[in-house]
């Protein structure tokens, strides 16, 4: 099998090269935005994000894996050290969630003698097929260098907390050293001191959700239409800022397991926003004034090594955008003045005036008060030209005067063209062509186009063109603008260096804004759809619960249901007719669990949920042609994965297990897997058409049989009617031949249904006959066994054995008789 990873330098090809030599060319090919596909289940989402991950691992029975992920698009670094299993479930799940574009590993991982088992697992993971692996020399994996990078790059206020968090986490620290080296040498980027958002993220504080579960539950993307909003992310994404949207995505994929520090404060904040409508509307209004602040701040602190005019222009744009961001913080702070919940108060404190006042003063010293960030090309150019205050630099003021006169000459030239040639040309501008003219095609239906016009293109009803004089003036103005940018650059860079000292506090404000945006989105959804605040409990209890996505699609037709599960009812078998709602019911349970551990209200009248640390869903019934695997093969592979990782803190949703093979084998496998899941102590919802499974396991401790109700009418007639009640009832399904009934009800030609009905009756008759024959055989064998016993006892009457020998023989005869009778009663077989 061809490996999906490509390596620049393996130990078997070239033993050692410098970091820049063996990564630079690769990075230019693979890490450019838009050159690779991005998994829909990624935390950050979107192909524009560049995420690089370094992996350092120990060797042993229980391997320890250190991860360091850097998102150079949002200036985030996440460190994690995981005590994993031989199957690396936690590590693979982490990588699937963050989906890096490049993975860095030590070059010794690829040698034949010491080949990493994790590398082998990565190579065969379908979710990471676009990721490329680089092998770096051992010298770049240094704990000392990792600690130094943290001290140099992390926020000063966070240093002590980070040092405590990484203490003893050797592998995570080594991975951080390698990933920073890669960013600096291969990506040709520099990170300003004390501006990187470094976080240590323990894997035990979030619910583990694998990629198959994300796909099956439609957490991020709809199964049938990727552009549809009919997914959990589409349902809850009422955010108004890009930062809030990214945090929502991350929270869906990594729900929290911390009740007191995370979930309860979120519930209280959402409840307060829902109760105080005026505060909610003011907050939403204030949030709409924010752009993508995370990327804006990142562009300040992560800059390319080689400066240029474009970089200088971008620096001016960034400063103006920072100004707009700072000015928008004040209204948000005012909107939160009346809040009382602890989380909203903390967010408000992050936005208090003294947090942004120093930055405002710095900007006012250099930037004109009336200059703001603009969107159109000509407005952006003008704002760049007049951004720096007048009088700061004499040469800059002269260049501005030249720029102003050149612009006025352009407009005067256009007026002359219009007067001379009796046209109505409009002046337009874009960054590629500079200044150009736009005229109506209809104006030249009865007269020729003037010869003075050049570079003409036609777009719809318009003619876009230039004149030679206009091109010359446009170039002159562009030169003046470039001179202004160059003269402004020193002052702008000095201002940016001063702002960098306040970047940690600005990032914290940004994080508070994203959290507030997500909470407001939860409130918006809860108020619009009548969701309830969940309670944390040891049992799962839902009253009138609804499937959030189905309710959105069919708000008037969805039937709510009750749900209850505890240790005495932890394995629930759901049976019912096709289309009765079994899959919808069990998916509803999983989605509500995810929503509750996000901090969101849930679609129910009352909800009490436990904390779940792992969520597994086995629902797909599709073949995988690419992997050369059938439905049954995929099913068994996914179930093997679940059985290896399931425990008492797991919620497992299993749908139609075993139907990809023969009925007898499928039932046997379903029974065996159900037994294993029962022994694990996990909470399981098991939807199946195997009615025998409900009878076999019905008496086991922890098992509860349920079914989805169906109303059957006039099944003997051609005008058959079958009504799905979508209501959960106790016990296994009682309707027989519901497949035939449904086929008749949905309009399958009657002659085919009659033939199928006749075959079903014959099969039932044969089964009944076999049972009767079996009972008859058992009766005959019992009689034969009793007659043999009678004959043996009759012979013993005349025996000459002594008392002890006779007693011993009778005891053996009794034991043999009981064993043979039990064998006959159990399976009808016994030796005569």
From TrEMBL:
Residue ranges of domain DNA mismatch repair proteins mutS family in the record: 650-666
Keyword terms of this UniProt record: ATP-binding, DNA-binding, Meiosis, Nucleotide-binding
Example GO molecular function: ATP binding
Region annotation (Disordered) ranges: 1-41
Extent of Polar residues compositional bias: 1-31
GO cellular component: nucleus
Keyword Transmembrane helix tagged: no
GO BP, sorted A to Z: mismatch repair; reciprocal meiotic recombination
Signal peptide: none
UniProt keyword annotation of Oxidoreductase present: no
Superkingdom field: Eukaryota
InterPro entries membership: DNA_mismatch_repair_Msh2, DNA_mismatch_repair_MutS_C, DNA_mismatch_repair_MutS_core, DNA_mismatch_repair_MutS_sf, DNA_mmatch_repair_MutS_con_dom, MutS, MutS_con_dom_sf, P-loop_NTPase
Family to which the UniProt record says this protein belongs: Belongs to the DNA mismatch repair MutS family. MSH3 subfamily.
Assembly and binders: Heterodimer consisting of MSH2-MSH3 (MutS beta). Forms a ternary complex with MutL alpha (MLH1-PMS1).
Protein name, per record: DNA mismatch repair protein MSH3
């Amino acid at each position: 099998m061809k490996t999906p990873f490509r390596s620049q330098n393996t130990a078997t090809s070239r033993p050692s090269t410098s970091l820049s030599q063996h990564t630079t060319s690769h990075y230019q090919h693979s890490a450019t935005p838009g050159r690779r596909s991005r998994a829909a289940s990624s935390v950050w989402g979107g192909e524009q994000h560049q995420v690089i991950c370094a992996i350092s691992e120990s060797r042993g029975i229980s391997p320890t894996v250190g991860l360091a992920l850097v998102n150079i698009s949002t200036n985030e670094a996440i460190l994690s050290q995981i005590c994993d299993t031989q199957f690396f479930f936690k590590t693979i799940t982490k990588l699937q969630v963050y989906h890096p574009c490049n993975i860095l590993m030590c070059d010794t991982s690829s040698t034949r003698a010491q080949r990493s088992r994790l590398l082998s697992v990565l190579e065969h993971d379908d979710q990471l097929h676009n990721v490329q692996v680089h092998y770096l020399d051992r010298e770049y994996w240094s704990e000392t260098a990792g600690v130094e990078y943290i001290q140099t790059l992390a926020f000063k206020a966070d240093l002590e907390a980070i040092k405590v968090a990484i203490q003893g986490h050797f592998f995570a620290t080594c991975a951080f050293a390698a990933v920073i080296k890669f960013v600096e040498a291969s990506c040709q980027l520099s990170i300003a001191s004390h501006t990187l958002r470094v976080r240590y993220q323990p894997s035990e504080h979030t619910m583990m959700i694998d990629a198959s579960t994300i796909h099956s539950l439609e957490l991020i993307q709809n199964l049938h239409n990727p552009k549809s909003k009919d997914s959990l992310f589409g349902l809850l994404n009422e955010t108004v800022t890009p930062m809030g949207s990214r945090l929502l995505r991350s929270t869906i994929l990594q729900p929290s397991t911390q009740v007191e520090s995370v979930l309860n404060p979120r519930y209280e904040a959402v409840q307060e926003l829902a109760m105080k409508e005026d505060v909610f509307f003011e907050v939403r209004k204030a949030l709409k004034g924010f752009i993508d602040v995370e990327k804006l701040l990142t562009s300040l602190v992560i800059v390319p090594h080689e400066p240029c005019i474009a970089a200088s222009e971008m620096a001016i744009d960034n400063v103006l955008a920072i100004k707009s961001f700072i000015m928008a913080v004040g209204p948000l702070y005012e909107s939160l003045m009346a809040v009382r919940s602890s989380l909203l108060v903390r967010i408000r404190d992050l936005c208090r005036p003294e947090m942004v006042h120093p930055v405002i003063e710095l900007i006012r010293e250099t930037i004109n008060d009336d200059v703001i960030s603009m969107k159109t090309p000509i407005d952006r150019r003008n704002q760049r030209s007049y951004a720096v205050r007048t009088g700061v630099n004499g040469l800059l003021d002269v260049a501005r005067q030249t720029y102003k006169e050149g612009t006025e000459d352009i407009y005067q030239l256009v007026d002359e063209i219009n007067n001379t040639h009796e046209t109505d040309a409009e002046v337009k501008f874009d960054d590629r062509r500079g200044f150009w003219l736009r005229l109506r095609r209809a104006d030249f239906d009865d007269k020729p186009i003037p010869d003075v016009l050049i570079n003409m293109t036609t777009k719809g009803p318009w003619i876009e063109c230039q004149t030679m004089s206009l091109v010359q003036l446009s170039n002159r103005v562009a030169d003046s603008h470039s001179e202004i940018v160059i003269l402004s650059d020193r002052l702008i860079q000095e201002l940016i260096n001063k702002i960098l000292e306040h970047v940690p506090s600005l990032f914290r404000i940004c994080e508070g804004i994203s959290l507030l945006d997500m909470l407001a989105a939860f409130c918006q959804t809860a108020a619009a759809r009548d969701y309830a605040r969940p309670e944390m409990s040891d049992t799962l209890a839902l009253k009138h619960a609804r499937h959030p996505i189905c309710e959105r699609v069919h708000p008037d037709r969805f039937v709510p249901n009750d749900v209850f599960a505890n240790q005495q009812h932890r394995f629930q078998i759901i049976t019912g007719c096709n289309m009765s709602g079994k899959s919808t019911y069990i998916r509803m349970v999983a989605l509500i669990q995810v929503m509750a551990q996000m901090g969101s209200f849930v679609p129910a009248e009352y909800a009490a949920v436990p904390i779940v640390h792992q969520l597994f869903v086995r629902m797909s019934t599709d073949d995988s042609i690419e992997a050369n695997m059938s439905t049954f093969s995929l099913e068994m592979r996914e179930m093997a994965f679940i059985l290896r990782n399931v425990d008492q803190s797991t919620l497992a949703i299993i749908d139609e297990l075993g139907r990809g093979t023969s009925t007898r084998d499928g039932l046997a496998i379903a029974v065996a897997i159900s037994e294993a899941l029962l022994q694990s102590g996990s909470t399981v919802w098991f939807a199946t058409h195997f009615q025998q499974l409900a009878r076999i396991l019905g008496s086991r401790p922890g098992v509860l049989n349920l079914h989805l109700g169906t109303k059957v009418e006039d099944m003997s007639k051609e005008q058959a009617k079958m009504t799905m009640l979508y209501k959960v009832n106790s016990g296994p399904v009682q309707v027989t031949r519901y497949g035939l009934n449904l086929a008749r009800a949905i309009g399958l030609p009657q002659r085919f249904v009659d033939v199928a009905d006749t075959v079903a009756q014959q099969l039932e008759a044969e089964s009944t006959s076999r049972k009767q024959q079996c009972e008859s055989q058992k009766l005959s064998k019992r009689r034969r066994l009793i007659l043999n016993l009678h004959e043996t006892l009759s012979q013993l009457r005349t025996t000459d054995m002594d008392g002890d020998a006779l007693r011993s023989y009778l005891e053996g005869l009794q034991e043999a008789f009981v064993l043979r009778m039990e064998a006959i009663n159990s399976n009808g077989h016994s030796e005569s």
